[in-house]
Amino acid sequence: MAAKTILEKLGILADAAKYDASCASSGTTKKSSLGGKGIGSTEGMGICHAYAPDGRCISLLKVLLTNHCIFDCHYCINRKSSNVERARFTPQEVVDLTLNFYRRNYIEGLFLSSGIVKSSNHTMEQMVEVARILREEHDFRGYIHLKTIPEADPQLAHQAGLYADRVSINVELPTDAGLTRLAPDKDARQIEGAMGQVTSDLAENKDARKRFRHAPRFAPAGQSTQMIVGADKASDADIVGKASRLYDSFKLRRVYYSAFSPIPDASAVLPLKRPPLIREHRLYQSDWLMRFYGYKPAEVMQATDADGNLPLDIDPKLAWALKFRESFPVDVNRASREQLLRVPGLGVKAVHKIVASRRHRTLRLDDVAKLTLSITKVRPFICAADWRPVTLTDRADLRSLLAPKTEQLELFTT
Fold first, then answer.
1. What is the mean pLDDT of residues 6-29?
2. What is the phi/psi pair of residue 87, to 5°?
3. Can you spell out the DSSP letters for 202-248?
4. Domain 6-212 is in which class?
5. Which residues does the UniProt record annotate as the domain Elp3/MiaA/NifB-like radical SAM core (predicted)?
6. Res 168: pLDDT
């Protein structure tokens, strides 16, 4: 069989990397490099787009070192029993691709993951070598995100953090039972032990940098993880509870959710179809409520139905408000910031502007309308100088009034 070209390998290994959702470049320190920075490209194999907190589009080369794997996780297209075309990069080939794409302003960084070939330590050594060559031999100052392998030696994960801006370890599934059933080669305690070691390394590095000005940085963008949604029977309440515990225990920068996608030659233990993509979206919204709106995990779980799942027709913030109508309406001129953050339709920025504006004048409904995309959604839950919802908040059909209207689009319209 003829050896594959670099482009052929890139086509295989970039496509194999698309199932990893935890590809984002936010949170790292800014770096400068000779020649300036590019914004990115809209095409090209392996180029994915993420967004920084300031809205900038960041393009990353997202690729696997190899899709060979000694593990047999049922949900993974690259499992050892899968009938897929295999390919493998050398560390130098990944380095060359990264530098060539970077010089052409196609990308601003690298996201590197891998199947496990030979052993966890061997694979992790190869990934660390990619980052080492880029940083030490080429003085590469772009963004690097390495997906580390929990079964590898902790010292290798530590080396990865010294070269990478962010490291991540996938917990894969929300429950230990689901992981045991669908990924028999993986161990939940081992995964969390590896995450705990990274957390410890981050804390030690933070302390070292306070005491020693030139101490090397360790994963300045922190660590993240990913959970697959819909591959097992875990409910949204299970997922929210797991995410909350991970945030608290390991100080994660992000938890990513990836809706299970049916794969070729799928195992019989997997569902036949993927969950609705809106379910993934609702989980991200619930994640936002815990991280930025002051909701406790138990409160987000209160928005779920009898099966522990978030409603698909409305967002979790509105679902919570409808269940706890006694908490509303709140007076936009007197309510605390925490109370205003509970109002459906009011975001963090809108609440900040309300609190700042009411110091100078009494707010009317029109003033609030200028700060939100849908005053219709806000009206039942607030009072203003010229507005009280009276019985609107208690209407039995309030949910149907506020739920987004679904519309069947036509393929051919004039």
1. 77
2. -155, 165
3. HHHHHHHHHH-TTPPP--TT-EEEEEEESSSS--HHHHHHHHHHHHH
4. alpha beta
5. 59-286
6. 96
Backbone angles phi, psi at 162, to 5 degrees: -75, -25
- Average pLDDT for 117-131: 97
Best CA proximity match to 199, nearest among 152, 165, 250: 250
Separation CA 295–CA 316 (nearest Å): 11
Residue 149 in tokens: 């392998």
CATH class of residue range 324-402: mainly alpha
State the residue for tokens 């995309």. Answer: 373
What is the per-residue pLDDT for 272? 78
Whether the CB-CB separation of 170 and 213 falls below 8 Å is answered with no
Enter the tokens of residue 329: 């309406």
pTM above 0.85, yes or no: yes
Pairing of strands 143-147, 57-64: unpaired
Residues whose CB falls within 8 Å of the CB of residue 58, separated by 6 or more in sequence, listed in order: 25, 40, 49, 50, 51, 52, 108, 109, 143
What does the DSSP assignment read for 335-347? S-HHHHTTSTT--
